[in-house]
Fold this protein.
Amino acid sequence: MKADNVLVKNIRIIVALFILIAVVFVIIGASSEEPTRMWQIYLINFLLWTGIAQAGAVFSAILELTNAEWGHRMQQVAESQISFLPASLTLLLIMIVGAEYIFPWVSQVSIPEQKALYLNLPFLFSRSIIGLGLLTILSFVFVKKRRKADDQGGGRPRKLAVVLLLTYALVYTVVSFDFIMSLSPHWYSTIMGMHFFTACFYTGLSLIIIMAVFGRTHIFPTDFMTERDFHDIGKLTFGFSIFWMSLLWSQYLVIWYGNIPEETEYLHLRFYEQPWSALTWTFILLAFILPFLILLNRKGKTTQLVIGIVGFLILIGSFVHMYVLVAPSLSPHHAYFGVPEIFISLGFLGMFVLTQDIWLKARPVQ
């Protein structure tokens, strides 16, 4: 146990260094001759980690709504992920500074007057702040009421769980339109919203798995999770891997079956042009093919080390997926990923780990 405490303390020091170094790179990148490169990786990480944080509350709400008897402790770990949401709102406000470098329609691409009524910075950030702020409040209120019901009995917050899930689907659909689809302002997709919020939840599951595996070894009680618990979350992850990929296939199917050539540019760039083609197949391999094959077997779901590896594969694959959704729209001919991108990404990871650590120290898993 003492060795574990030293490990956790060292991780906290490393996390603090990551955050400090990331701040330096953000300042340098924002004041450089190529600020778009910095704001690009900033947006990618903002979408990734905000989605993961919100997925914690969504996971808990789903268990609450379905009256699930499994994963009670895992539910508490998932809820700790919402601790990043207030920080996410602050990061969203910072993004206003670089809006002209993020959104091509601000100065580089002309859009129809009707579309400009929706795509304008005051309206975009207003609806994003209100929507994500409302979700943050709903998440914290839901978690508080759910834990109170566990501790003191009384009515379960199932109606609030329904409100939370519906608001999540609506707000994250709008977020996907604003921060992903509008980067290619002449392209549109009616399925992007569902694809995005499903991807966020799927990535959130991967982090819950990672925390469960790491926590069972170094933080939480040894009986924190049983083999059956790992099997249950493994089945849930397996199911969502298929559902998430089916939505990507559905995007292609609609374009092909409906003969909509004006929608092919977005997918053609990512599937057939380098370096994006290699990155697209990389995230499909990491986030779908390998997890699908591993989780087909019962041992893949119940072996702690194996399912932990699956969690890491999905998390890394999901990062590449978010990169492929955003980066080609802003820099179609260059895939920037060097030292600045690495340390800014590690800084976001550090902020997420730090907020979750503070939450778990104040509200230990019981």
